[in-house]
Amino acid sequence: MFERVALYLQDSHELRDGLDYVRMAEEHGFEAVWQAESRLVRDAIVPMAAYAAVTEKIKVGSGVINNWTRNIGLLAATFLTLDDLAPDRIICGIGAWWDPLAKNVGIDRTKPLGAMKETVEVLRRLLNMEHVSFDGEFVHVSGIELDVVHGRKEPRNVPIMIGATGDKMMEMTGEIADGCVMNYCVPPEYNIKALELLEKGAKKVGRKLEDIDRPQLVVCSVDDDHDKAIDTTRELLTQYLAQQPHIAKASGVSMDIVAEIQSILGWPATHEQIQKAKYLVPEELILRITASGTPSEAREKVAEYIKNGCTCPILYPVGGSISKLIETFSKK
To answer: Strands 140-144 and 132-135, how do they pair?
Structure first.
């Protein structure tokens, strides 16, 4: 049995079905549910509010929103509101986004480290109910505070977790964040360097690695039929390796394979394009960077991530029965 485990939801199911999955995860002792916000499909905030409203104990996190598209005042007010709905159960997972999507909607992600640092600093101060003035390169506020008239006026307990991938962002995460939402589609040994960077950043401010929570997204396809589970994961990897090259780089995937997949997939990718390109993704890669297969195989792989420093696996069900995945990792 795993000491900590969480569920990751994206868009492969009807939104209302997600409420049932979250309630089931809570019943089976899952610590948290994280809602994705990646492609232009579902925002994280609306599902998070729904999950918070129909549960009592499970934590609800954004996995992850970006720090470019929400004004800092709105960002703070949003998480204040979520905390009103589920006090002490909300987690702000935030990341630097990625191209080409950011560029395609008009966002120029210049100086991602500086932009993230300013966002985290001001967001934390606002959620601490401070009166804030800040004139940075990316964040500019003058004498603002969260204007609570009706409700709790005390500082809010909303941990800020950065979804870091690159080395510099990982190191800075150890310095400024409550935790790191470690990436998926990477082999367990990827964590070794990531932990070194987190610890390096933590030491700058007198903290230890143990002070940094390290939940990690893990692609997980569980089926009693091994081959069926593998094929489902293959479809996901086909799309993500083409559309999120930073993940492909972190995974150690051949750029030749990525280029060939990209030559087949459009934007957005169609089902037919994915089916045509998926055979370029070898099974060896699937087994190396995901927890896919039978229930026992999936549990064994997830345990490798924990052995390599993940504090709480966030299981991303890419296909098959989400209920079966929850039962596979149930704490009951």
So the answer is: antiparallel
pLDDT bracket for residue 40 (50, 70, 90): confident
**C-alpha dihedral (80, 85, 88, 94), degrees to nearest 10:** -50
Is position 239 within any domain?
Answer: no
Which structural domain, as residue segments, surrounds residue 81? 6-222+292-328
CA dihedral 67, 106, 36, 190 (to 10 degrees): -70
Decide if 249 is inside a domain.
no
Q: Taking residues 196-200, report their average pLDDT.
A: 98
- Whose CA is closest to 79, among 176, 177, 158, 153? 158
Q: Which helix (H) or strand (E) holds 59?
A: strand 59-62
What confidence score (pLDDT) does residue 204 get? Answer: 98
Q: Determine, yes or no, domain membership for 231.
A: no
Q: At what angle do helices 72-85 and 45-53 cross, to 10 degrees?
A: 20
Separation between Cα atoms, residue 120 and residue 134, nearest integer Å: 12
Structural domains of the chain, count: 1
Domain CATH code at residue 84: 3.20.20.30
145 CB-near residues (< 8 Å, 6+ apart): 126, 129, 130, 131, 132
Whole-angstrom CA distances from 43 to 12, 31, 134, 199, 237 are: 14, 22, 28, 32, 21
Output the CA torsion 50→55→59→61 (10° steps).
-10
Does residue 241 form part of some domain?
no
More confident residue, 162 or 40: 162
> What is the DSSP-derived secondary structure letter of residue 156?
P
Q: State how far the Cα of 153 lies from the Cα of 273, in Å rounded to an integer.
A: 52
Q: For residue 180, what are the β-bridge partners?
A: 162
Enumerate the H helices of the chain as residue ranges.
Answer: 15-27, 45-53, 72-85, 101-104, 112-127, 167-176, 190-204, 226-243, 245-251, 255-264, 271-277, 283-289, 295-307, 322-328
At 217, the amino acid letter reads: L
